[in-house]
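Person: I have long wanted to understand how a fold can be written as tokens. Underneath my words sits a plain record pairing an amino acid chain with its backbone structure tokens. Those tokens are not coordinates but codes from a learned vocabulary of shapes. I should like you to check that the lines agree and flag anything odd. The protein I mean follows directly.
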Amino acid sequence: MKEVTVDKKGTVAESVVEKLESLILNGVLRTGDKLPSERALSEKLGVSRPSLREAKQILVYKGILRTTQGGGTYVEKTLGSELSDPLLDLLQNNANASYDILEMRCALDSLAAYSAAQRATREDKEKIKKAYATLERLHNTKDCSSSDEAEADAFFHLSIVEASHNVILLLIMRRLFKALRSSIRNNLKLFYAKSEIAGPLHDQHYRLMKAVIDGRATDARDFAKAHLKFVDQSIHELDLEAQRLNRHKSQNSLLGDF
């Protein structure tokens, strides 16, 4: 096998490091994934096994990969994990933060959907279909917890972000995944008690998934934006309903004092 050549500024190992980093950044290799065998990976990358070993050692030193004795090499589980900023924990219990998260998602999710429809590979599309199927199954399961459904909802949207092959978008959404999941969970507790909201949500997810799979970029962008605007409007309406109910209870309490 003839090993790949690189310019004088770098070594073969450095070139392999860049390739592996690119696979991780683009979501081909995910956190916790086990790397293929040295033989398979060296053949795939067109390099010698010694060069591959050197590249892996560099990435282990950088904290991107980890090795286990006799167990192979893995992408670090903590890589790209949620931000540990205490403010994100506060967001989970702040009702007003839901609107900020939705505002952010309206911009990012619509861009991700547009790009995913243009760039998604066959593997990406299969992941999106699988994520949607899981969400659909949980949606139709009686007594399904809002936490499980929220996680499936978040993973569905994350699968579309991964298919966009925009590494900055993916990094942002991975880092904010905890807050995103919490926001969705809080919304679902309210939404699925209302059939007039739950039904449209199901249809919106399907249309979004289908547009991305079919490569209809403009439709995918518009469906993502419409979905989040519907969520935003529904939250506002439920908030107003809760405020009216609280006022009614307060008035009844005052009347009871006379």
Notes: The CA atoms of residues 138 and 145 lie 9 Å apart. Residues 12-75 form a domain with the Arc Repressor Mutant, subunit A fold (CATH 1.10.10.10). The radius of gyration is 23 Å. The chain has a mean pLDDT of 80.
